Amino acid sequence: MTATDTAKPQIITGKAKLAGVLGWPVAHSRSPVLHNYWLRRYGVDGAYVPLPVEPDAFVAAVLGLQAAGFRGANVTIPHKEAAFKIADVLDHSAQRAGAVNTLVFEDDGKIHGYSTDGAGFVASMEAAGLNPPKQAQALLLGAGGAARSVAAALQDCGLRVAVTNRTQGRAEELAKALPGLDVVPWNAWEQRLGTFSLLVNTTSLGMEGGPDAAFRPSLAHAGKELVVADIVYVPRITPLLAEAQSAGLHTLGGLGMLLHQARLGFQKWYGVNPEVDAATEAFVQESF
Ligand SMILES: NC(=O)c1ccc[n+]([C@@H]2O[C@H](COP(=O)([O-])OP(=O)(O)OC[C@H]3O[C@@H](n4cnc5c(N)ncnc54)[C@H](OP(=O)(O)O)[C@@H]3O)[C@@H](O)[C@H]2O)c1
To answer: Which keywords fit this entry according to its UniProt record (predicted)?
Structure first.
């Protein structure tokens, strides 16, 4: 970001375009920082606000925002499945993810739902110049909501995808939802790493304040070309990424996914296709 961008005031007139993020809790969300940065940068008359909404109040809140003239909203934990249910129209990404993180209130009164997490991950890989070949095999650690959207997006790019999860039943459920997905036992993935060209951590392991912030698995069996990605973005370099870097492997952190997943909503609500560049990344990074 340039000094000119930081100096630009936000424009919020009586015609301002409004959106926000629904979550419970929502205080940790970086989306308000990001969207308001873009609003200032592109001189859009608009605002983006955090919307702390308890699960029981989700439907009333969405309908209330729509009645109040909002353009739509992002949806974060724990509302992504409720958002899937409330949408009148689900695009391909939402159907594949079984969840919605972006709601758009269209002029005809219909609520459209999208899941942009998986596409955000793929876009962040592409932006980093890490395009795995189509026949590549990816291994995902985790079988939660983020895993499903990333797995679906990678499959849609033509990759063969496997998942491994502490709770094996959850990985098997995921394999039922996404045909073609392989399941690797949690206690065997480190030994089988040599068959994969992309490893993605989609668990909360390695996250500051998460279940095990020190999570640093062995990459001793990795091939030389393995790309190691972590969708955790606090800290920026997780212990897994540090291990990969010390082994001389290509790595990708989770901040790019966070920034890229936000683009579709911004474009739909505010009418500008925002750029994810070093300035955007630096601005959001400063908020941590
Ligand atoms: N970069 C981004 O834009 C972005 C977007 C979405 C999410 N994320 C991050 O992705 C992570 C997962 O999010 P989510 O929504 O998918 O959460 P989720 O649905 O709650 O899934 C959590 C996953 O972590 C695993 N896990 C938790 N504690 C574990 C432990 N002690 N040992 C082994 N596995 C453990 C769970 O395994 P079990 O099934 O065995 O419990 C599950 O696979 C979070 O850190 C979130 O911040 C990042």
So the answer is: Amino-acid biosynthesis, Aromatic amino acid biosynthesis, NADP, Oxidoreductase
